[in-house]
Design goal:
It is a single chain. The model has no long low-confidence stretch (mean pLDDT 96). The two termini are 19 Å apart. The radius of gyration is 19 Å and the shape is globular. The relative contact order is 0.09. It is built from no helices and 23 strands.
């Protein structure tokens, strides 16, 4: 199965976001549309399927809302069972006049859901029942980052006890300790993703943790680079290792291949995916010379059958 968000659809005469369900033929790569459902808001930008395969979670950037949709036995989508609207604002009137839910994910134990809201400068925490596709605010319901940071995406370490949040507007990476029993985030460190004395315009986009848990990667749009950090497994301290140019413009997303041997950077504004090798000892990247031309690439997902 493959699931995708759509920014604008017409459901019953009103424009809203959508989520689409596709059957995926692993041999041929053919996609067959099963159905679509409203996303519970406008401009959906991220979704995630829970570990049981019974529920899909979606974040709606435009409206600043989130939703949970049940997955039927054939993989098709039911209508949203839960829709929650965020409220509030932060310090940047152009980007943060209202909520902007940018990312949603179940935690590794599949008991809570975490949401990055760029407009609120918060990570919101929800109790999660995948069997009923229900979300309810946890206690505490959120953690607040530095005003103007603009949290965008989140990635868990393999042990599930650390989480890393990429802050789009602040061009920073924040490390948190995570208490899985109570869904409590404790800020440990915030570090810049940009070179010292950088004076240009740049925003962050994606964050990924290496399967070993030893390295964290973050993309800069403007500096057009992947920032590389070593993560000390005992203390969770981050240390900057270096930055690798993405050989293109605007790396909105990148993905680590299964096993962590390769990193694929998607340069949205230069229409290409660039492949880098990953040094398993240092975490550093080296361009392989392999490039794939793709129009405005913004996301890569590896199929379960991938042998990359």
């Amino acid at each position: 199965m493959l699931y995708a968000v759509g920014e604008v659809e017409d459901f019953g005469g009103r424009e809203t976001g959508s989520v689409s369900a596709y059957d995926f033929d692993a041999k041929s790569g053919k996609l067959t549309l099963l159905n679509q459902q409203p996303s519970g808001g406008t401009d959906p930008c991220h979704l995630a399927v829970d570990a049981t395969g019974r529920c899909l979670l979606v974040a709606n950037y435009g409206s600043g809302s989130i939703a949970a949709l049940p997955l039927r036995p054939d993989g098709s989508l039911g209508p949203p069972s839960t829709v929650i609207q965020h409220h509030g604002s932060s310090v940047n009137p152009q980007r943060q006049a209202g909520p902007h839910a940018h990312y949603i994910t179940p935690d590794p134990a599949n008991r809570f859901a975490l949401v990055c809201d760029l407009g609120l400068d918060q990570i919101l925490l929800y109790r999660f029942d995948p069997a009923k596709s229900l979300l309810a605010p946890s206690d505490p319901p959120s953690v607040t980052l530095k005003r103007g940071a603009g949290p965008r995406h989140l990635a868990f370490a393999p042990d599930g006890r650390r989480a890393y949040v990429i802050n789009e507007m602040g061009s920073t990476l924040t490390a948190f300790g995570y208490d899985a029993k109570k869904a409590i985030l404790t800020e440990l460190q915030t570090i810049s993703t940009l070179p010292e004395r950088f004076t240009g315009q740049s925003t962050c986009a994606e964050v990924q943790v290496h399967p070993s848990g030893k390295f964290v990667y973050a993309s800069n749009r403007g500096d057009d680079s992947i920032a590389i950090f070593a993560a000390e497994l005992r203390t969770s301290a981050l240390t900057a290792v270096g930055r690798e140019p993405t050989r293109g413009k605007t790396p909105r997303h990148f993905a680590l291949a299964p096993g962590g041997k390769w990193l694929l950077a998607e340069n949205q504004d230069s229409n290409e995916v660039v492949v880098f090798g990953v040094d398993s000892r240092t975490g550093k990247l080296s361009a392989t010379g392999s490039t794939l031309e793709v129009g405005s690439p913004v996301c890569i997902v590896f199929a379960a059958t991938s042998s990359f």
